[in-house]
Amino acid sequence: MKTLTLKLPDALLAEIAREARARNVSKSEIVRERLRQRSSSSTNRTAASLWSQMEDLVIHSDTLPTNLSADRAHLKGYGKNRSHR
């Protein structure tokens, strides 16, 4: 196994050390597990479709006016200076 040296923020190092003590394993083992989890979750995220990743951000068509693109009346006065400004 290769060795990698890195600098961690004190809070993260303390969190890793607490977990290692609680589980009675080395800090290196905790870091390896977290890297594996992160790697597998990012793989799953890229495998998901764009739609499934953004579905909660999409406005459903039944909440919008049905004639928004065809009826130009809703654009009347758009872009003109407002008198209250």
Percent strand = under 5%
Proportion of residues in helical segments: 40-55%
Q: Tell me the major beta sheet.
A: none
> What's the number of structural domains?
1
Distance between the termini: 68 Å
Low-confidence segments, ≥5 residues, pLDDT <50? none
Radius of gyration: 26 Å
What is the helix tally? 3
**Looking at the chains present, what oligomeric state does this protein adopt?**
single chain
Using DSSP, what is the number of strands?
A: 0
- The chain-level mean pLDDT equals 79
Provide the structure class.
mainly alpha
Order of helices and strands: HHH
Q: Estimate the global geometry from the Cα principal axes.
A: elongated
Description:
With 85 residues, the protein is an all-alpha fold. It has one domain. The protein has three helices and no strands. The longest helix is centred in the middle third of the chain and has 21 residues, at 27-47. The radius of gyration is 26 Å and the shape is elongated. 0% of the residues are buried.
In short:
By secondary structure, the protein is an all-alpha fold. Helix content is 47%, strand content 0%.
Keywords for this structure?
85 residues; mainly alpha; 3 helices
Reconstruct the topology from this structure.
Blueprint: H1 10-23, H2 27-47, H3 50-54
Helix pairs in contact: 1-2
